[in-house]
Amino acid sequence: MIRIGVADTTFARYDMGRSVIDELQKTDTGIVVERYTVPGIKDLPVACLKLFRERGCDIVVACGMPGPKPVDKISAQIASTGLMQVQLMTGKHIIEVFVHEDEARDSKELAWLSDRRAREHALNAYHLVRDPAYLTRFAGQGLRQGFEDVGPVEGSVGGYRH
Ligand SMILES: Cc1nc2c(=O)[nH]c(=O)nc-2n(C[C@H](O)[C@H](O)[C@H](O)CO)c1C
């Protein structure tokens, strides 16, 4: 039984956790989802560690929203370093879904981007656990989560448009 953790924050201005869970449940009703919401991105590393150790998750999707200020960007850097540490400690993936508030032109696009990135990475997490070889077919295809894929460089060999 695949157990996928979803860690998210109250700081974020969009409910990415809900998008992740909805996408996972649409994909495979057999997945067990464990959700844990904390105040902000710097609380995500320990939230993920608890999802691994206390709730037995195989993989965790960590959703956060760095604000636009320099101090927010620094906080995002610190959070990412913490998430990397937890991955190396546990030997398990944390798929980091960070949407920076200033990536989007306006609130409407911020909502759309948050939902899309959360859903696309939810599927990445699912595939990584279900079949670690699944993503190889997309290697080098310039895939992006949220905004449009940028595609492979011109003239690259093979390639698979999903
Ligand atoms: C400066 C700052 N920026 C952000 C941010 O951009 N995004 C976010 O989710 N949380 C931020 N926080 C709060 C910290 O992540 C954390 O929640 C608090 O320091 C409490 O541990 C802080 C303190």
UniProtKB/TrEMBL annotation:
The keyword Transferase applies. It catalyses: 2 6,7-dimethyl-8-(1-D-ribityl)lumazine + H(+) = 5-amino-6-(D-ribitylamino)uracil + riboflavin. InterPro entries: LS/RS, LS/RS_sf, Ribfl_synth_arc. GO terms for molecular function: riboflavin synthase activity. Gene3D superfamilies: Lumazine/riboflavin synthase (3.40.50.960). Its EC number is 2.5.1.9. The keyword Disulfide bond does not apply. It comes from the Archaea. Keywords: Riboflavin biosynthesis, Transferase. GO terms for cellular component: riboflavin synthase complex. GO terms for biological process: riboflavin biosynthetic process. Pathway: Cofactor biosynthesis; riboflavin biosynthesis; riboflavin from 2-hydroxy-3-oxobutyl phosphate and 5-amino-6-(D-ribitylamino)uracil: step 2/2. Belongs to the DMRL synthase family. This is Riboflavin synthase. It comes from Thermogymnomonas acidicola. The lineage of its organism: Archaea, Methanobacteriati, Thermoplasmatota, Thermoplasmata, Thermoplasmatales.
